[in-house]
Amino acid sequence: MERTAAHHNHPITPMNLYNQTDKSTRMTAFAIILVAVCVTFLPFLGCAPFFTKGEPREAVVALSMLQSGDWILPLSNGDVIPYKPPFLAWCIAVISLVTGGVTEYTSRLPSAIALIAMVMAGYRFWSRRVGIPAAMIGAVVTFTCFEVYRAGFACRVDMVLTAFIVTGMYSLYTWAMERDMSRLPWAAILLLSCGTLTKGPVAIILPLLAVWLTVMLCGHNLWRCTWKMATVAFLALIIPALWYVAAWQRGGQAFLDLAMEENFGRMTGTMSYESHVNPWWYNLVTLIGGLAPYTLMLVIFAVCLLIPQLRHSVKNGLSRWRTADNARAFMFIAPMVVLIFYCFPSSKRSVYLLPMYPFLAMQIGLLALWCARKASGVVKSYTGFICIVAMLTFIVFCLFHIPALTSHHTAGLSADTLQAVSGFMEPASWWKWAVAGISCLVGGIVFVQLFRSGTSTALVGLSAVMIALYMAFGGVYQPAAISYKTDIPMARDIEQIQPDGTIYSYIVSDMMRFFTADFYIGDRIAPFSPTTSPVTGLILIGDDDVHEFHRLYDGKVRLEATVKRWDKKSCDIGQPVTLYRYAIGR
Question: What sections of the protein cross the membrane (predicted)?
Fold first, then answer.
């Protein structure tokens, strides 16, 4: 009787199980996840050059901050006001002050740190609510979902914003659901403020909306919850408002128009130009792609539902979900809020849905554990497929380095195709061979063990193969695949031709700049203007734009000589580019 009473007073819950777990076990699990996410990202951030206009556009803002000393609203590329608030640029600039300069590595490091912090916060949050094993699997799934992985490797605001939104959700949930909204959640307020300084008020709207809806569905008082959330929103706006006022004083009406268009025009579809306009179902398509490679596991699971016994087990599982605790309800509500919210604006991008992935990853982690108990074939077949992918990619990489094969099979390829595969045929350093070889070795070992061990071992092996494969992808395969796209050769030639001073550019589209080349030569490319540019100098013009240049400046500006031409299309403007020497006047 005493044992029964004790059991009744202390029900077995994930939180109780977590508290009863040995501290060394909890610390070991935490350390394993931390090491796993760090080794997947930190060693390889600088391996790939900038090859899209988005990354150098953000990095050059930090570069201009350091060069000009203007940390409020620095101009880059000659005349470009930053499109986003400055938090990411501040992070890059501070890190670069310590390391001695802005590089690809220092520019991407804030995104990687944000991802690591988000993964570890998610592990800590969910391990107390769904258990350590599920939280560990969910953490690995989070940073190995391709969309999340890609954002963690990019010098863009998206991963930093996502980290603040998601950790803000965790903090607000703990305050609202487990502390009865007592006192003020200063940690959450600071997270929402930093998120707003990263990209705008959406960092306040999404966390508050998700937690408010969760609290309402759990039966809390409407008015008390609403005014508490409104207070948090007001306090979270104070610090960002100080920057917006300072930037408005510096940039005037031009900054105000840009801020209104980026924050409100994008949401209401009233922008002065079309930006990523897509139908509502675009979000669903990108979500399916972003969950890769776990989309395949979900497909295998769906096929297995045709088995009657498994279908019966799923129905029983779903009935238990309906009576699940508040944390599991939050696991469903938060991503649904993000998805529905971003279905309304006409502007839609895959990265907008990034706050969904930590919650979906945790659901995939729970599904994987359930399959390990009820449908081991799902886990083993999926793990086997990933092992085969890891081994095949290494084999293909090796084949590219056999001269007899490459010379025979590339003889009839076009120049563009040869250029695209050239990165794979370049000699690789020893450490790249080691990283790629480890991914193949891990894949082979796990594949063999699948036939000898249980499903729990398959889950551990799956995590190991995923991490090894992504290490090889980030350090070896991706840099080889995209090396031909970058404008670094153009930047190096410009440095040799004119080591100092401004290089001018003419691009028909007002939105475009030579962001990549500008970053690599130290923010020295500025738009050409016949009234402010010197009477003679060097100017970059794309092949498609040179005719418009002649038409616009006929008789006013002449292109006296061709200094250098690059036949490869620029990764920024999508055209072959020529460097001319110009002269103003007759």
Answer: 29-51, 83-102, 109-126, 132-152, 159-176, 188-215, 227-246, 280-307, 327-344, 350-370, 382-402, 430-451, 458-477
CA distances from 52 to 156, 366, 481, 570 (A): 11, 36, 13, 9
Averaged over 233-245, what is the pLDDT? 97
User: Dihedral sign, CA of 298, 300, 306, 307?
Assistant: negative
Q: Is residue 50 part of a domain?
A: no
Q: Which residues are CB-neighbours of 325 under 8 A, at least 6 positions away? A: 13, 129
Max CA pair span of the chain: 105
Q: What is the pLDDT of residues 167-194, one digit of tens each?
A: 999 999 999 999 989 899 999 999 999 9
- Smallest CA-to-CA distance from 467 within 46, 41, 47, 154 is with 41
- Distance (Å, rounded) from C-alpha 59 to C-alpha 309? 55
Cα distance from N-terminal residue to C-terminal residue, the chain: 105
Question: Tell me, what's the pLDDT at 311?
Answer: 58
One-letter identity of residue 164 = F
Cβ 287 vs Cβ 356: under 8 Å? yes
Instruction: Say whether both 245 and 115 belong to one domain.
Output: yes
Sort 373 into a burial class: Cβ within 10 Å, 0-12 / 13-18 / 19+: exposed
Spatial CA neighbour of 211 closest among 122, 338, 121, 124: 338
- Domain that residue 231 falls in: 2-44+83-367
Distance CA 528, CA 491 (A): 18
389 with 200: CB under 8 angstroms? no
Query: What does the pLDDT read at residue 220?
Result: 82
Stretch 241-250: mean pLDDT: 94
CA distance 202 to 565: 44
Residues in the chain: 586
Q: What is the pLDDT of residues 352-381, one digit of tens each?
A: 999 999 999 999 999 898 888 877 888 899
Split at pLDDT 50, 70, 90, the class of 1 is very low
Q: How many domains does the chain have?
A: 3
- 14 and 109: one domain? yes
> Tokens 């040799």 identify what position?
496
- Residues 465 and 316 placed together within one structural domain of the fold: no
